[in-house]
DNA2/NAM7 helicase-like C-terminal domain-containing protein
Amino acid sequence: MKRTLKSVLSALFGRKKQIHKETYTVIHNSVHRDSNLKEQATQKLTRDQENELKDKLRCEQILNYWLDTELFDLPECPMDYKKQIISEPADYFSNSWGVEAPKKIHAGKLQFTTDSRLFVMFQCHIAGYIAKSEEKHPNYITPRTYLVGQALIPKWDNEKKQVKWTRSEDDEDLVINLATIRTLYRRCNSSIPNSMSLSDWVEARMIEIESMLHKELSPEDEGNGLDTEELQNKIIHLNRKIAEQFWPDESARKFMLNQCQPIESRFADKLDQPSELKSGAVTFRWRYCYYPEGSENQQLGPFFVDDLERAISSVGKKGVGGLSRPLQDYLLGRKKQIEIGNAVNQGDLFLSLTNKLIKGRWPDNPDFGLSLLQCVAVNVSTDLSENPIVAVNGPPGTGKTTLLKDVIADRFVTRTIKLSELCEKEEWLSSSESISSIMQYSMVVASSNNKAVENISKEIPALSKLPEQYSDVVKHFQSIAPEEDWGLFCAVLGNSSNRRSFKEQLSKLKDHFRNIKDYLHLQFLVNLLKKKGPEKADEVFKKFVTDWKDNKRISIVIEDLQECHANKKYQEFFKPFASALQRVQNNELTVEQFSASWKGLDEEQWELSIEALEAFKKQWFGKKLYSKHLTRNLDVAQRKFNEKLARVSKVLTKDNQEFKLDKKKHLVGTQYYSTIGEESENDAEKRLQLSSPFSSSELNDCRSQLFIAALALNEAILECAASQLSKHWEKLDGLIDGYLETNESTPEHQQLWSILFLFFPVVSTSLSSVENQFKLMQKKEGFGLVMFDESGQAVNYHVTGMLQRSRQAIFVGDPIQLEPVVTMPPSIDLAIAEDFFPISKKDGNHCWGDDYLISSNSAQSIADKAGKYIAKIGERKVGIPLLVHRRCTEPMFSISNRIAYDDKMVLASKPFGWKAIQSGWINVDEDAEEMKKTGYANSLEACTALDLVKFLVEEHPDMVQGGVYIITPFSIMRRELKHQWKEVCKDSSNHSWMQSAFGTDKAGLDVESFSEHNIGTVHSFQGKEASTVILCTSASNIRKKQGGITWVNSKPNLLNVAVTRAQHHLFVIGNQKDWSEGTLSAVLQNGEMQCYANLEDFKRQDARLIDDYLTEVRVVEKASSINFDFG
């Protein structure tokens, strides 16, 4: 474990007792106060103090409960064959380390280092007791685990020619399975004294375990260690003693035998069965792993203990005031929330939420502005004092990323306005005012979904994502950015791989600034010419003159020549040289022609050329001509920025005709939120939701141009401050890795963080990396804005550390898509929670603690209760909803809208223009006698899916141009689909149609890789989309998997994600009759979803334009709405 478990648990259990005392005090004081009338002034003071105490106690209760659940940490016994991390059974130990290891050492094939570790795992088993039967869904994998793990240090005894072992005393080399220990206390407590509390039980077990390990694994001769045979005997003895500690009586032993399996039972290893000893004891086997460079068996988590403990400590010392405002609101909720209903006839509310001047805009297509509720979200986010938390609910395809990019652009522009004032002062970069301003507008994007972090981090600076009109003008240190990016803007941090890649980018940035004085690269030019000689001079000049031309510096070279006396001294060289450069600038001479002329120089001409350029270089640096260019760049950038800013600022004045705002279309007055003419309220609502308030094409372009100008100004400001930056470069690597030595009692390193954010206004990280990534930023509200992407997938307490570090938080997610991955079963979650706060015991009841349970509340769910604005979708209360859908066409849009969003969404995506067979359900009926495999491995459906792909590719290629995904709810079916694809792939005659299934954008990929990238469970495809999606349902009554059908239909989340992966075409494969009984899955067989009797029936259908069959559906719907009255 990363921390000393004993100290963490001891503190937690101590606080738990204190919380119980404080709860009693609050209740007692409340009753006492209400039963005794006092003077009003005194009563008011007492009431305020009591409310403060209640809030403090509530925060402590929630945070300590979250810490307790984080410590429910289940270590996994390594069995990853793909990564070749496999624990070995006890039977191999004697031969491996008593016989083979000495041979390898003698042959030089095995060497020990100070980090080498042998990790021994005691009582290894498959933990069937963790989840109850009703909690195990079809994809549930019963974990392989162990009770105790201990690392041993190997050392070669050259005298005795054998390996000697000593126990590692390092905290991280001892792993105690808290999850199992605590579960056994609750579910198998026959041998636990009635008076023993959970905390006493856990502490007693930990003390006993450490005592046994120390006693058994300490050699009699401490200097030498244990030999392999001695160690093996000790391990066997220890393994049995540990079993006796945890299941000492017959009842407990039966529980373990009934609930657990041996670790390799799935591989039919007869040696791996549990032993029932003569004494009656039951013991599972031990296993071991060898790690030559340090134990990799240390738990990946817990990731959030330190941040939770810091928050708890802050509350304890300073009350609720010790927490950031976002974290306060997150824990206590918003007492008064304003409901955002339909926009029709609500002009006063909506105008006030859309009419702020949002200066910056991301350089997206100016013809498409933000929709009404996107605009509301961006406006609300600008008011920090009123909105420490902004909760945005974004169903699939509603523009969550678009919204965040506009927030980012506006913050960056606002920061640039401030910096343009501050940079005029001497040594401005070190001033507290500058550091404070930079950090105020710092931005972090975080998500539990690593793919979501990667996607938005790559999309932000991607050149390919810019419209053509902006692709040549959006720049920010572009010369040192990756080729596919328009510049530096987002620092992708988090895991070690990302940090390594980022430090490479940072290294290039350092080099750029170290050479900033060589504005024209004269030093590099002259040195390279000397090195390459006249034979390669043409290549050298081609590179440099191209760079001068691209960056508009040819005229500067010519101008600077005039200021150097070398121009006169070597006029026979510089006169034709400058003349030719001028012609290149005027496009009268190509760079290639200019460069080629250097091939014809004789030796005398070459030496004169080098002498002249050397003289020009020395005089250029001597006169410090670089300084005027940097200053001039800053002046130009400042002037252009000011011009753009002044122009944008006119939008709220009477002098705004140039922006061509249409009052009705762009909702510039309250009256335009009413119905128009004979328009129905439903039609008016759709019109309003699709509207873009204060967002004409002209204004959008002007705001995007301001952002572009801000990028140029930021670059110019920083280049002029190069000398101030030089002393900080070396410390940035340490800051990023978290290894920077510091004298700060509470590390925050505001100045270093501010420098990082100057160049990279946005930093991204996964939530699991926050504690480690930002351990050198412990200041409350040290950062500006944190944006939690896909927060509907985030475990609720995983955002605690980032909230405490930030001044404002925007949560963007959707609780009706995939839920957080919580490995703890609900029953255990409830058992832990009731130790800290009240939770409901009956259906229909509600206690405040229910809202913080990790098994039923995502980060988004809690944030929705903490924001100022809410809306209702059906019976659900959500944050600001995004309702304009732009991804899917029909019928996917209507299905998703119906099952998940109470028909509140509005369709904005355009129908596809090619002929296609209508989306629908392709029936697959199986015969029990012909089934090749049972369970969820439905080979008939898998073969049908592949036949369908082949048919579409060969007969209807337009339908697969945007690629094909084959998805399923069940992990076992995923394996079957992958297997079938690989089998078909063995026949090279299939490769042509299989290749086409990738889509035109991914042509050329390895055919077999389709199984890795385009086939998977629904869960693995959130955030992805393809033109055609095939959903294999797999379960059926004949397969006795009705439970799978029930599970899929239990909540709309899974089907909602599955359906919205398809942009244009959705085909469901499965037993129509069995799935028609599901409340949600039945929707996939109605409306615009056609039902096909089988694949052959599907193949007989004619392809038609989408409008043709949508018209048919509308006619049927119209006919079905006719009412008769015979009475």
User: Anything to note?
Assistant: Residues 79-301 form one domain. Residues 31-42, 1116-1122 have pLDDT under 50 and may be disordered.
